[in-house]
Every structure is written in structure tokens, then in C-alpha cells.
Design goal:
Layout (H helix, E strand, L loop, with lengths): L1 H10 L5 H14 L3 H7 L5 H12 L2 E2 L17 H7 L1 E7 L2 E6 L5 H11 L3 E5 L2 H11 L6 H10 L28 H15 L106 H7 L11 H10 L4 H12 L5 E8 L2 E9 L4 H5 L2 E3 L5 H8 L3 E3 L5 H9 L8 E8 L2 E9 L7 H11 L2 H15 L3 E2 L2 E2 L21 H4 L37 H7 L4 H13 L1 H10 L18 H4 L1 H6 L4 H7 L8 H11 L8 H7 L5 H13 L4 H13 L5 H13 L6 H7 L5 H15 L7 H11 L4 H8 L5 H15 L11 H16 L11
Parallel strand pairs: 1-4, 3-4
Antiparallel strand pairs: 2-3, 5-6, 5-10, 6-7, 8-9, 9-10, 11-12
Amino acid sequence: MPSLLAQTLIAQGLLPQDKAEEALRHQAAQGGALDTALLERRMLAEPQVLHALGEASGLRPVNLADFEPNADVASFIPPKIADRLCVVPLSLDGTTLHVACGYPVPRKELEEVGFLLGKPLELWVATEVRVREWISVIYRLPLTPRYGTVLAMLDPERMGAAAIPPPAPPPAVQPPPPPAPDAEESTLTLEMVERLARDVAAEPVPIERTAEPPAPVAPPPQRVQAPPARPAPPSPAPASAPAREPLRLNMAEPARPQAQPQARPPPQAAPPRPAPQAAPPRAAPPAPVAAAPVRPPPPPESRPAENESARAPGDEVPEWTLAQARAALKEATRDRDRLIDTALRFGRRSFDYVAAFAVMRGAAVGWDSRGDGLRGDALTQVSIPLDASSVFRTVAVTRGSYAGPMPPDSLTRHYLELFGRQPPRTLFLYPVEVRGRLVAVLYGDCGQKPISQRRLSDYILFCQDLPAAFQELLLFRKQRQGPQRGGMNFDVDIDVEFDEPAAPAPSAPAPSLAAGLGWSPFATRSAGALGRAASLAPLVMSQEERPPPDFGPLIKRLTGPDANQRASAMAELARSPEASARVLATHFPGPSAWSRLPVVELPEADELGPIAGALSRLGRPAAQALAPLLDSPDADTRYFALLTAGGLPYVELVDGILRGLFDPEPDLSSAARVAAAALKHLPRMDAARRELRQELGHRDPLRRSLAARALGTLHDREAIESLIPLTGGSDPLCAQAAADALREVTRVSHGLDTRAWMAWWADNRTRRRADWLVAALRHPELEVRLSSIEELSRGLNDTLGYYADAPEPEREAAVRRWEAVAADPVRSRRLALL
């Protein structure tokens, strides 16, 4: 984490405390890595920063300025993933892929990359600016002006060397363009189609790779006098030869045209770079993960009626072109069933069997399917935990599609057998992400037959439109069906949009166990207590409430791959909440498919993993066990503890959450903000708001900005008079944070204009916040109107016919209805807490 790097620099005497704090503030304001901020501010020389990166990360540092970018290995990591993780491939040494990473090192994500490639990764640490330069050279991506400026400062004699020419124009033959893709996706799409089209003449395309003994792994040499001569690229294979491309993480992101390396006099050392191979040797498959016994699906003869009845006209394979499928998808964005039907029917052009899984509470639950395979209610009983090590977890964590042979792990095979798929020759997975959260996963295979590359490329292009379609569906349903459904908050839980099919229960636990599955602090709100865990322990425990002598087998079942065993383990843990909470805290956070990123909404505890999900069901004992983890020295533990704490409304957690609001890590402070917002109705949070308002006068600009963002998330009206002067301050970080907080509280957009804010406050200080939200329903920005109606409708449990995307005359009529409600003393009482 950046703070650890700062502590390392201070401990080594390379940087005084005040300079380290200045660098952290600059990094928080400008983004990027802390080492870039240090170089940008000329606080340290590059060798000193590189040495500190090695000390803080525990990896060997590599100075990429001394090496030549190796475009031959670019195909192993797609450009979008390389850019997101700030990693770049260096060389292939036998079966080991050497990778340079920025700091902090994304270890978990790189484990997933190595898993998909079937290759061990050797990690090196480098400065962010050098990694970004290599990414721009290898993938022919434009380098941002900021990094170009820093490189010019580091290498004055190479002014302009960092400027990378724009990518070559796409070929003349292009598929029908998507409705409105961004520039990057458009480039990827055209290049992918061009690459796949070359293989169409040779269909069917074999996928098998010849097995070769792994070469011995040797570390990169430290110094060589000259780089090895680059061999000529291998001649293309004849059309009848099997395709032997390196396995790609995301076929929607093929490798960019290889760039010619920059000439650098004189290179002193280079990571090992063997000659390009027609078929890179695969690493030995990892040891299979212990899986629960496979529950075979019903034999085909036991369900002919189900499959035949399911083969309605909707199961016919349509002869759509890509443009026609996109048009059908666009027309289906307001009907959930029609949307998924369109996606599955078009997928049948490419696959013999295609299925959709809804992502709910950390698991992929069977939704619907087409083709020769498990259908109907039987598919809805399939639940695949996304934190168990399989290709489904890899897709969930990396958010990249997968098309290739089935990975060698046993869990992937186990999950495919759950929905009736024998190990296919090639399988396809595509994650659908909406607002940073995974909502669905598409699956397809052709059994033992090869996949048509042309049709696969069309389907990948079609899938790129699914996130926007699901986003429009979500917006429509949130407005038309109200803010709550089944007692769940639409604004907090996006997965409620896809709560059909029901949660799986192929072999339901006994009634005594099932009673604990839904037990949580929110289950009963009696006047006396919040549940059994919140009450005093009985003097004499019954046999059921007595904790087991050994929690090991129970924890193993809880974190195992079988959903039913997990459910029964959670119920057993709920019998003895005090002892279970202590044991779960020692295993926290446990396996998880949740990526550590900044958050704007609180996820369900089950999405964070089975350990967090089990803790959320134990009430106050869980809060007491979780409280020390909020101050853990491990950043990952603090992050997951903060998100878990948001689902436990107990005062024991408030102080730890308040400390998390000032964590210099952006993802941790964002987790603390959403947790604080979830607990803002606790009495302790009233005193916390006063403390946060005092922090607005702190001398540290970073602390002031974090306090402003927290107050904005808490919708603190009393902070407005202190926030307005900060918008005109000299520190841009504080000014922007104050403007964002004011916008969040008032739903008014005046940006950094302090005078406009003062004038608005003079006119509106006597009005209620509910009146501000009603006025914001006329705001010209859709996002402001949508956030305002979401808050108002939560208070009244009705939209009064207001839809943020409706025509202006309809919106105006609905606004007048809201104004009448706000003026009614009786009905407006329900808006008093807004």
C-alpha cells in the first residue's frame, strides 16, 4: 500500500515525514502510484525510489529503462488487463513468464492470470511510469501526457521518446459497428475480427496443444553486455495446420500489432527472451483442489418431458446477423426475460448449449439456458460459489471473458457436471458487469465439436453490448417498480434485480438448521433485542447450542465448493454465535471473489465470501469479534472488515469505521464511507458527525478532504457552512472533495464556484433537505434527477409517477405532485429523515 512505501522511505532516511505526507496528498489528488508522485515532485531519484519499492513489496526491483521492450510476449496478457493492473510481460523463460508490476503489486489478480495461462509467474517490481511506458510500446497504446512529462524529466536526452504513434487504422473490411462504443473497445473489436477471420478458412479449428516437457526455470541474468539478437518471426503455418496461439485471457482483447522496439544506446541487461515458439510449452497442471463429491445430474431419460417442453419456439436458432441481434437486444432492454432470451438465442448460433447465471450473494446461480442440456427448474438449483478456485472465479475476479480448453482444476469439472456438461473441447464464459458489480455470467460450449471462430467473434461483439443493456434494464425497473422489493433496498443491492430464479436448495438442510440460515441482526426487531446473538447467553447451554469441540471440519465445509454444505455449516455456526464468531475472526477474510476496489454501494456480506457471510448472521458477537480487525495491519483484512461491518448495526464497530474514514488508501476509505452510511442512524453516529465537522479545520489537506467526503456520504446538513469556504481554497484536493460533498448533500451543482454556493445557501438555508431533493427533480442532469428520486421514493415508498428519463412535460406534472406532498404536514413527515 502507498502508506507502507512512505513508511519505508521514512525508515530508510530517504524522506522526511512532512515530505512523505506531501507526496501522499499529491498522489491522492492526481491519482496513480505514490512512486510516480515522488518522481513528479522531484523528491527522490529514480534508483532510490526503485530500491524502496523492492523493500516495501518484497520483490526484486527491475529498472526497465535498461531493457528493451519484448513485443514477442505481449499476447500472454491482454492490453486492457495489463493497463488495469499496471503489469507488463517481460519474457518467457521455459514455462515461467516474467512480469514487471507497479506498486502495490496485484498479487491475487496475477494468480488468476497465471492460473488461466497454466504458467508460473515470476514477479518483479518496477516504477509505475516505466511500466506504463512499456505498455504503450508493446501494445501500441497512447501514453498519457502525465507519464510522458515524467519520462522527459527522468530522461532529458530522450525527449519525445515516450510518445507512441497512434495505432494503425483498421482494415477496410469491418463488421457492423456497435451503437455507441468507446474508442478503445472499437479498436479492440475490429482487430479481433481481423485476427479471427484469418482462421475461418481453416475451420474447424483444433484447440489441442502438444505436450512438451517443461524447461528448467532460470532467473533472469543480472547483467549482459548486449541484448541477444532478435530471431526472425516464424513463418506462418499452412491453412491446414492446427492453430497454436498462446492461450488468451480475454478473446475480446487480442494482442495489438507488435511495435518495433525503441532503439536505446546502450542496453546493459535484459530479462531472458527465448525465440518465439509456435506452441509455447504449458506448465504442469496444478494439484487438483479437493472438491465435494460430484452430484451427477439426472440422466437424460429421466427428464425428456422437461427438455421437450422447454424447446419452445424461443429455442430455435435464429439466422440473425450481428446487426440484427444488436437491434433485437436494444428493443429488449426493458424486459428482463426478453433480454436474456435474446442473448441466449443468439448464442445458439455459436454453441450447442448456452446458459446464463445470475450472480447473487457471491454465487453464480442458474438462470436460463438454450440447447441440449440442463434446463428449466433443474438449472435454477445449480449454485457455483465464485470464491472457490475455478475458471468461474477467474472470470469473476478479472472481469475478462474466457474462450479456450477447460482448465485442469477439478472444481471446474465438478461445476460443469452439476449442470450436465461433460468436459467440453472448448468452453466460453463472459461476465456481465454493471456499475462495477458483476450481475451475470454467460456460458457456452459445443461439446466435443470445434467452435466456429467467425460466429464466436460475432457473439463476443454482441456480448460487449450486454452491460449497457442490463444498465438500462436496471434503470427502468428501479424507477417503475419502486425503491424496495421484498424488503430489500434497490439502491444498495443491485442483485435484487435478478432475484429470479430462487436461491438453490437441491438438498435442503433439516428444519432445525434451516432456521439459522436467514437469521441475522435484521431478522427480528423486537423491543427487547435484535436476535438471539444480541441477547445474554443462557446460563445452561442446550446440546444444540454447545459449540463443537473442533471447528476445523466446520470451517472446511464453510469454505468448500459445495453450496449446500456451506449453508448447513452456516446454520451450525449460528447455534453457538460467541464461539463461532471468535473462530471465524481468526480465519477472516477467507476466500473471496470480490476485487479490492473503491466502492460506492455496500455489498452483501455473502458477496465478500463465506467467512464474511457467516459472520453477518451472528449478530453482536460477530461485531465484537470483527471490531479488532478494523485496525488490522493488513490492508486486505481492513477492507473486508469495513465492508462486513456495514451489515452489522452495533456500536462496537463505529469507532473502527470512523478511523477507516481517514485511511490514505482510496479503496479503504471508500469502504469506510459506505459502512458509515449504512450505520448512520445509530446514536453514536450523531456524535461522530460533530467530530467529522471539526476535522474540516485540520491543517492536513488530505484529512480535510477525507472528512468532507465522509460528511457528504452521510448527508450532513450541518456541515454545509464549513464546506462552502473549502471550495475556494488553495488546495485542489480539498476544494474538489468539498464540492462533491455539497453536491451529495444538496443535489445542486455549483462546482468550485464559492460565490454561487454562498448565494444558494442564503436562499435555501431555511428549507428542509426534502425540499432540496424535490427541486432537484428539475435538474438538467439525469444522474442528479435519478439520485434525487431514489432518495425521495425511499421515504415515501412511491415515485408518484416521476421517472427521471421521462419527457419533460411528464416530469413536470410529477414534480408538482411531489411539491404537494412536501407541503402536506402529515405526508411530509415520512420525508423528515432525508
